[in-house]
Amino acid sequence: MRNPRAFLRPLAVGAPKPSSDVPFRPSRMIHFFDPSNEKMAAKVPDIAMKVDIILGNLEDAVKTEKKEAARQGLVDIAKATDFGDTQLWTRVNSLDSPWVLDDIVTLVTEIGDKLDVIMVPKVEGPQDIHYVDRLLAQLEARAGLDRQILVHAILETAEGVANVEEIAAASPRMQGISLGPADLAASRRMKTTRVGGGHPGYLVRQDPTGEDLTAGRATYQQDLWHYTISRMVDACAMNDILPFYGPFGDIKDVVACEDQFRNAFLLGCVGAWSLHPVQIDIAKKVFSPSPEDVAHAKRVVEAMGDGSGAVMIDGKMEDDASCKQCLVMLDLAKSLAERDPELAAAYDL
Ligand SMILES: CC(=O)SCCNC(=O)CCNC(=O)[C@H](O)C(C)(C)COP(=O)(O)OP(=O)(O)OC[C@H]1O[C@@H](n2cnc3c(N)ncnc32)[C@H](O)[C@@H]1OP(=O)(O)O
Ligand SMILES: CC(=O)C(=O)O
Ligand SMILES: [Mg+2]
């Protein structure tokens, strides 16, 4: 374990100093594109203006023979594009792959000044973050970068879930964690072939009302991901980093996508992945608090004065704790309103 006083020291001579906190930036959707796909890549400058985060994906979903083209494509796009306030991220190949070293060396050297976050897949424990942390410090020093590139882990192995608290705490570079439901399902040998979302077989059934066990018993589909998302949210919250839901693979089912994203939002996630342009507006809608919730939060905070005591609003008790809940809502609304003029008008803060 590292000496706590050394936690904020750079890991290489000349590397930028780690920051003690992750600045919150609107992060409602991480939009994935394949930089080796010319049609998709051509849309990046336009899409970047509509999303909070644009991510050049080099890992799964990029064909083996396109790995080098995707890496070079991302370098070319990053150099040619002004991303404005939109964050530029990449997902590099996994640490056990033959490509990851060249991914990290090339990207930090060529476009390190533009990259905000490197997403690392299949993180199994703090040792994976330590490896990336030191390597990034060396490359940042060599490239003369003056700010740190942050690290985001995907939670997609049973071992990663078992170690999620240590992963979240492994480095001041840790920006956040995303749920990876597809690889996680495979790693756990879950019997679902879907990429995220529910499953009709995972349910609870009402008790029988008579002799006939098949009659009149409603069933309720349950959320396969509740435990993992909740555990990830706690690990992130205790380390002041940001939790995200990951992908929803049924692109056509925009209704269930919205439900899955909203479950994650209600449980504490700040955003989700968009794999297809149709999912961008779903994430924007779900991960922006509703104007009604913001107006209610404002009323409670105003009525609570210094935040102590108890008041009655619309028949409901509000006190120090519910005032804190309302402040969470207001803080998020304010930071989104700074980026989004439509929301600023709707929230009237
Ligand atoms: C488990 C995981 O690891 S999830 C993360 C990895 N997976 C990914 O990153 C997948 C990213 N998304 C994709 O590859 C694609 O969206 C697919 C394969 C799912 C569907 O692609 P298509 O069959 O082309 O979808 P569709 O025909 O509806 O696309 C409509 C248009 O949007 C474009 N488009 C589709 N996805 C994207 C995207 N993510 N970004 C930008 N443009 C996109 C298509 O190129 C197409 O353009 P066109 O109208 O000029 O022809
Ligand atoms: C997100 C991801 O990589 C997965 O679900 O496997
Ligand atoms: Mg995966």
From TrEMBL:
Keyword Magnesium on this protein?
A: yes
Query: Does the keyword section mention Magnesium?
Result: yes
Q: Which residues bind Mg(2+)?
A: 156, 183
User: What InterPro entries does the entry give?
Assistant: Aldolase/citrate-lyase_domain, Citrate_lyase_beta/mcl1/mcl2, Pyrv/PenolPyrv_kinase-like_dom, Pyrv_kinase-like_dom_sf
Q: Where is the HpcH/HpaI aldolase/citrate lyase domain?
A: 29-194
Q: Which regions span the lipid bilayer?
A: none
One annotated GO molecular function is: magnesium ion binding
* Annotated keywords: Lyase, Magnesium, Metal-binding
Protein's recorded name: Citrate lyase subunit beta
Protein species of origin: Aeromicrobium flavum
Q: What is the lineage of its organism?
A: Bacteria, Bacillati, Actinomycetota, Actinomycetes, Propionibacteriales
